[in-house]
Design brief:
Layout lengths: L38 E2 L4 E6 L26 E7 L12 E3 L17 H16 L2 E9 L5 E9 L8 E2 L1 E5 L2 E6 L5 E6 L6 E12 L43 E10 L9 H5 L2 E10 L5 E4 L4 E4 L4 E2 L2 E3 L13 E5 L2 E4 L2 E2 L1 E2 L6 E8 L2 E10 L3 E10 L24 E4 L2 E4 L10 E6 L7 E13 L2
Parallel strand pairs: 14-20
Antiparallel strand pairs: 1-19, 2-24, 3-28, 4-5, 5-6, 6-7, 6-10, 8-9, 9-28, 10-27, 11-22, 11-28, 12-13, 12-27, 13-17, 14-15, 16-21, 17-18, 18-19, 22-23, 23-24, 25-26
Keywords: Signal
Length: 458
């Protein structure tokens, strides 16, 4: 049976806050607050190439054709690495404790796990929550030349020096199987080295099991899971509201990242607020109840509220810093063109595999995804936006001054701290990652069949 959201939360090591009540239907989402109303956006090029097959939602009595091919790599790019995950992961046995602070290898900014943003907004209740457990990590390379790095996170709730669980990748049947048994597990695969000005990365994902609604609704067939969770999970200690430091439930959002480009030097699992501030472009899913997202329905030609199994194609909006809790606004590709807000391209289907692509050509990002979808059937969706289109893509520049001065200059004040959102003297390296980056949300499994990296020909 599903356990109700906890009214109180007992700490193993110190004392902990209770969870806030689950939002009422119609309330805005907790992990990614965004309107389901989309508005058109100028700029960019988008296409959707569909094979002659019925939409998956209508069913078909014949074998559907293969999805149209993905666009080929840009001229001058050649396949440099192709990992098929036949070899086992060389995961070390020992975990390394993350003790936070500027000396931590995983330290980045005010949205770190012990960041000033949370300390000021949450006060002693947040600090007590952070003291209630110990954080442990593993980081190790994989593949030829160590071109991939695995970053894992586990929480030691009883403070005995050993995490009760932790995110993992296992090599089985030529696939990297992601396993996050608890919502505070984290596991990503990322590029070891920063990516150059021109590149293309492709990853194929299958076996997606991170919540969402099934034929019988949001409960699992045996009634033991709600949105993939036991029912008592909370987003502690980082996800709360400015008005109260009591952590919000985690069961409202469950998902996985298919492919993301970040803006900092060492991608690793972090709290979801941190992750939302460090994305340039992303394709992911977040199964959310009550629905804060919408999916474009090509049959009704409108965005319909839908929190289950969406596939996003997002360029982060570089016009403003955005919400301190959820980061930049979305510029989303849909079959009707680009939209502002959480209006997404289509929905994935259980049992299907999807290939995701991000290509950077020196002046634009191209996102693509190919597979069999709920609305579009066998389809390849492609979206390209130049870095400085209106709106620009957040932190696109790998080096200071790339293509000119930052398109936005904003001074952000968070609590007692003030900083520039896009300083002119800073560059933002591109790294790709896929997996479960959130250490206070997301619980489930998925398989990553292979990953390819194309680089400029030598």
């Amino acid at each position: 049976m599903v356990v109700p959201v906890a009214a109180s939360f007992l700490l193993a090591c110190a004392g902990a806050p209770a969870a806030s009540p689950t939002p009422a239907p119609g309330a805005r989402g907790t992990a990614d607050e965004a309107s389901v109303e989309g508005t058109g956006v100028k700029g960019g090029v988008s296409t959707a190439t569909t094979a002659a097959s019925a939409p998956a939602s209508q069913g078909s009595t014949t074998q559907p054709p293969r999805a149209p091919a993905l666009p080929p790599p840009a001229a001058g790019l050649q396949l440099a690495y192709h990992e098929t995950f036949e070899a086992p992961f060389a995961e070390p046995e020992a975990w390394t404790e993350d003790t936070y602070g500027p000396k931590s290898p995983w330290h980045v900014d005010d949205f770190d796990e012990d960041g000033a943003f949370f300390a000021e907004a949450g006060g002693e209740l947040f600090r007590a929550g952070l003291r209630s457990f110990r954080a442990f990590r593993k980081s190790f390379t994989h593949g030829r030349d160590g071109w991939l790095t695995v970053e894992l996170y586990g929480r030691d709730q009883n403070c005995d020096g050993v995490p009760e669980s932790g995110g993992r990748f296992t090599s089985e049947g030529g696939k990297a199987h992601l396993v996050s048994k608890r919502h505070h597990d984290g596991a990503i695969l990322r590029s070891t080295r920063p990516l150059p000005a021109r590149y293309r990365v492709e990853v194929t994902v299958s076996g997606i099991r991170f919540g969402g609604a099934g034929p019988g609704g949001w409960l699992s067939p045996d009634g033991s899971k709600l949105n993939g969770y036991d029912g008592d999970e909370i987003g502690d200690p980082w996800r709360f509201r400015t008005s109260t430091p009591i952590p919000l439930p985690a069961i409202t959002d469950n998902g996985v990242y298919f492919l993301c480009i970040t803006d900092y030097a060492r991608p690793a699992p972090h709290n979801n607020v941190f992750i939302h501030h460090h994305r340039k472009v992303v394709m992911d899913t977040d199964n959310n109840i009550p629905a804060w997202s919408a999916v474009w329905n090509p049959h009704t030609k409108r965005a319909e509220p839908d929190g289950s199994h969406y596939v996003s194609m997002i360029f982060l909006d570089g016009r403003a810093f955005g919400s301190p809790w959820t980061g930049n606004e979305f510029i989303s590709f849909t079959p009707s063109g680009f939209q502002e807000g959480a209006v997404f391209v289509d929905k994935y289907l259980d049992g299907e595999a999807y290939t995701f692509v991000v290509e950077r050509d020196g002046e634009a990002y191209t996102l693509a995804v190919s597979g069999r979808f709920h609305h579009g059937g066998d389809t390849t969706y492609v979206a390209r936006r130049r870095f400085r289109d209106d709106p620009p893509t957040w932190h696109y520049n790998q080096t200071p001054g790339e293509l000119g001065a930052p398109p936005m200059r904003e001074t952000v004040k968070l609590g007692s701290r003030t900083f520039e959102a896009w300083p002119a003297d800073v560059g933002y390296p591109d790294h790709f990652f896929f997996g479960d980056p959130h250490i206070n949300y997301y619980e489930g499994t998925a398989a990553f069949d292979d990953v390819k990296l194309y680089l400029p020909a030598q």
